[in-house]
Amino acid sequence: MSVATKNGHTPKANDFVTEHWKQHGKEIQKYGDVVKDLPHPLDADIRSQMCKKLNQLLADSIALRDMYKKHHWQVAGPTFYQLHLLFDKHFDEQVEIVDTIAERIQLLGGVTIAMGGDVAEVTKIPRPPAAAKRSPSRSPASSKPTSSSCSSATRSPKPPTRPATTAPTTS
After folding, report:
1. Is residue 90 part of a domain?
2. Which of 40, 43, 79, 132 could form a disulfide linkage to 74, CB 3.0–4.6 angstroms apart?
3. How far apart are CA 118 and CA 65, in angstroms?
4. pLDDT digit string (tens) for 15-64?
5. Alpha carbon of 165 to those of 39, 41, 123, 159: distances in Å?
6. What is the value of pTM for the model shown?
7. Is the residue at 169 inside a domain?
8. Using CA atoms in the order 104, 105, 109, 115, what is the torsion angle rounded to 10 degrees?
9. Quick check: is 67 in a domain?
10. Where is 63: in which H helix or E strand?
11. Pair 36, 51: CB distance under 8 Å
12. C-alpha distances in angstroms, 11 versus 2, 20, 22, 51, 152?
């Protein structure tokens, strides 16, 4: 199928995009390996162990970050606005943590875990359900006021009663 451009010319069959479509780059470093000849004061074996532990921490931090955003999108109920802001704040803070850990791994000569599927395999944090879970504030029953909640919520509080005092008599 040929496509005409604005000037009416048909692009050549061997254009740059077509030649490189679905082309993969050559792997330069395996996940779990560290650069051996990196000018770093720590030995490569020590850096490798540190990168392994930091990648575990990174995977868990990425999972937490994504869970904050999931709950940010799915929160509902009377405290929606406060929780929506809180989850978004924690998400932003978690982004900074993720970036700091990933940069540390790079400085040690390691390869960072980055893709969601890889994170899901490595993280020790249990995966949350894909569906929105019902919380007490989301349940239909909680939206109906009960007689006990109505009676206390709709009436204004009575002022406290003071014991009657008698005025002192002077003679």
Report:
1. yes
2. 132
3. 15
4. 655 666 677 778 778 888 888 888 889 999 999 999 999 999 999 999 99
5. 87, 84, 70, 17
6. 0.63
7. no
8. -140
9. yes
10. helix 44-74
11. no
12. 8, 15, 19, 47, 76
